[in-house]
Design goal:
Blueprint (H helix, E strand, L loop, with lengths): L6 H16 L13 E8 L3 E2 L3 H11 L4 E4 L6 E2 L4 E8 H31 L6 E3 L9 H10 L13 E3 L1 H7 L2 H12 L4 E5 L2 H9 L4 E5 L3 H18 L4 E5 L7 H5 L5 E3 L2 H4 L6 E5 L20
């Protein structure tokens, strides 16, 4: 299983999601008897599972009496109509947690499933499928984990862990050479990446000895030339410069792009254009407890 984000981060994201849904209580819970019950999480379509840690954190924060027994782990393919988790505990608590649990599982599984499709499409090439910073606000670490669950790789996490010189930076600095020089002066040990929109800019970026060359919206014949230029640069300079393709990439053209020999293909739609996986929770008939307590509500404290 891919490396998880820090538990504090998972818990904080889960707490915010609970707070926006539950607030200071759930009036609808007053309709539910104080009984224990159990149920199943059911796949309504096939998908790559992702989101287990967030679902568990939601349950723990709403009611530690909730238990989850998983029959699949993050990164596994779950088939349509398959029950992949048994959930049990107080009926009130399960219903309070239901939507937030499903929101995490559906959204993150949607991301990991789409990534897996792209990864399978380029199988047999050297190209890695990579995400971008085009993530849903507040869910970056979770979505980037979902990318890893789907077999993809992460680009920089944010603005702070690498320098990516794009067209507006180039224009403001007065050119690629000037922008690269400024980036190396202020960036310290941070990787320096540079976007290129034509072969002249490819050469300028390579002359600047960038760590990563990003070819944006290149036709495949031009991308093939950029790959050849980068390989020649590596050979003569004993460099490790990475060449990456981006822009207008779909499941239909990603194989052609991979076949040009690029090292990476970055796709913003992996995390931006999310189609949630279809998952539902179905509870069994409630079973009375020996000592049923009062129906309760929840007050969530932000972390």
């Amino acid at each position: 299983m891919p490396e998880l984000p820090a538990q504090d981060d998972i818990d904080a994201i889960a707490a915010r999601a609970i707070a926006e849904d539950v607030g200071d209580g759930d009036p609808t819970a007053q309709l539910v008897p104080a009984r224990d019950t159990s149920g199943k999480l059911i796949a309504r379509e096939s998908f790559v599972l992702c989101g287990v840690p967030w679902a568990e954190s939601v349950c723990q924060q709403i009611d530690p009496a909730i238990t989850l027994r998983w029959d699949a782990k993050d990164g596994d393919t779950v088939k349509a109509n398959e029950a992949f988790c048994t959930i049990s505990g107080p009926a009130v608590s399960l219903l309070m947690a239901e939507r937030t649990i499903l929101n995490f599982l559906q959204t993150l599984s949607g991301t990991s499933t789409l990534v897996r499709r792209f990864v399978e499409r380029v199988r047999g090439t050297d190209a890695k499928i990579v995400d971008t910073r085009k993530t849903l606000p507040g869910l970056r670490s979770a979505q980037k984990y979902a990318v890893r669950c789907g077999g993809g790789h992460n680009h920089r996490m944010g603005l702070y862990d690498a320098i990516l010189i794009k067209e507006n930076h180039i224009a403001a600095a007065g050119g690629i050479a000037e922008a690269i020089q400024a980036a190396k002066a202020v960036g310290g040990d941070l990787p320096v990446m540079c976007e290129a929109e034509n072969l002249n800019e490819v050469q300028a970026a390579l002359d600047g000895a960038v760590d990563l060359l990003l070819c944006d919206d290149f036709e495949t014949h031009l991308l093939t030339k950029a790959v050849a230029m980068t390989r020649e640069y590596r050979r003569f300079n004993r460099a490790q410069t990475i060449i990456e393709a981006s822009g207008g990439i779909t499941i239909n053209n990603v194989r052609d792009i991979a076949d040009t020999g690029v090292d990476r293909i970055s796709i913003g739609g992996l995390t931006k254009n999310v189609q949630a996986a279809d998952i539902s929770m179905r509870l069994d008939d409630a079973k009375a407890t020996d000592n049923p307590g009062p129906v309760h509500s929840l007050s969530v404290k932000m972390r």
